[in-house]
Amino acid sequence: MDSAATSLSPIPVIKAMDEYELRYRANVGRGVHRLALVATQKYADAHKKIASFIGATEGQTVITKNTTEAINIVACGMEWHKGDRIVTTTLEHHSNYLPWVRLHEKHGINLSVVPPGPDGTFDLSLFEDTIDDATKLVAVSHASNVLGSVTPVNKIAALCRAHDSRLLVDGAQSVPHIPVDVKKAGCDYLCFSGHKMLGPSGTGVLWMKSPDLSPLLVGGGMISDVTADHYTESGGYMRYEAGTPPVGSCIGLGKAVDYLEGIGMDRVMNHEQALTTRMIDGLSSVKGVTVYGPPPGKNRIGVVSFTVKDLHPHEVAHILDEAAGIMVRSGEHCCIPLMHHIGADNGTVRASLHLYNNADDVEQLIVTVEEISRMV
Ligand SMILES: Cc1ncc(COP(=O)(O)O)c(C=O)c1O
């Protein structure tokens, strides 16, 4: 129950990576021999699958190391001027917060931080009041990695359009669990982690509507020409993937997309929502347990944060592991401002689901939390 941190890969994903390593391992976009051509084609095919998974028929889909790198590519690649404004929220993972704080501290960019309600949902009028003509970028999580709340990014997108601001959506917790379509979301950038959506570790994705960011890295594989004192950048995703990319892992991520599509994201969402409803109902009924986040329902993913009496979250997590083999995350979840905002200064225990969890897992969690609560 720690899939919000990273997920488990199914066998077809591992096999696809093994096949690359054992049968056609070669670098991509560089050689003309047979293996190089096969690897280059499969690598390009994986990009296409990933783009289609998020409904991207335009723009550029770039493979990164993780969501953090994808967000930093945007932060470092946009052109900033003093007086520009960035609007973000208190809900954000540090990865979608620190890049903006750094721009604020180092380059004098104005930073506005919109607070959510205690359950992680937003009063849209706060965005309406905050986004102005100086706002160059609005950066929000699609789904909270602490509270599980889902942000109505398409409504925020409409506000962005009215002020000519760009919208970055941190989809680290949404893309693996609910259907996400960049056109419906109306965003300019979508960042997510391949490793949280059954893909291998070391993979993330940046989709950008207009490939006009300045690349974070320069070097091999991203140019069309170099002279003594000038280089011309190539087009396509290659422009943002300097150096040898994680070829086998990207092919594995393409397979993870096949796997999720084979099941259907609606089914994944419904399965996880049913388990989440039971989890919240069960945990809420345990005496001494505080559950954070919105009530069960459509606008929620399977990330459930809770505390047990005044036990430290790490203590609860240790007992869950030792007593019942249940692996959960505990602590601040890379969201220190949010922890203070919701009054959980020591952090929370977080149980997070994926498609491979079942009703027994949830019942076992509830029963074990009940026992812990009775003990103290
Ligand atoms: C909402 C959110 N954003 C960003 C990240 C960072 O992802 P990564 O560690 O893959 O860079 C996470 C990871 O937990 C997350 O939950």
CATH fold assignment of the largest domain: Aspartate Aminotransferase, domain 2
Strand content range: 15-25%
Q: Name the CATH homologous superfamily of the largest domain.
A: Type I PLP-dependent aspartate aminotransferase-like (Major domain)
Give the count of helical stretches.
Answer: 12
Mass-distribution shape = globular
How many domains, in number, for the residues? 2
**Unreliable spans:** none
Helix and strand element order? HHEHEHEHEHEHEEEEHHEEHEHEH
Widest β-sheet, arrangement of strands: 1-7-6-5-4-2-3
CATH class of the largest domain: Alpha Beta
User: Which small-molecule ligands are present, each listed once?
Assistant: pyridoxal-5'-phosphate
Percentage of residues in helical conformation: 25-40%
Could you walk me through the main structural features you see in this protein, from its secondary elements to its overall organization?
- The chain is globular, with a radius of gyration of 21 Å.
- The relative contact order is 0.16.
- It is 39% helix and 17% strand.
- It is of the alpha/beta class.
- The chain folds into 2 domains: 253 residues, Aspartate Aminotransferase, domain 2; 111 residues, Aspartate Aminotransferase, domain 1, CATH 3.90.1150.
- The strands form 3 sheets. It has a 7-stranded mixed sheet with strand order 1-7-6-5-4-2-3, with helices on both faces.
- The structure holds pyridoxal-5'-phosphate.
In short:
The chain is an alpha/beta fold and 376 residues long. It has helices at residues 11-23, 34-53, 67-77, 98-107, 124-130, 153-162, 182-185, 247-263, 265-284, 313-324, 336-341, 359-375, and strands spanning 60-64, 85-89, 110-114, 135-141, 166-170, 189-193, 204-208, 223-227, 230-233, 289-291, 303-308, 329-331, 348-352. It has two domains: 11-263, 3-Layer(aba) Sandwich (Aspartate Aminotransferase, domain 2); 265-375, Aspartate Aminotransferase, domain 1 (Alpha-Beta Complex).
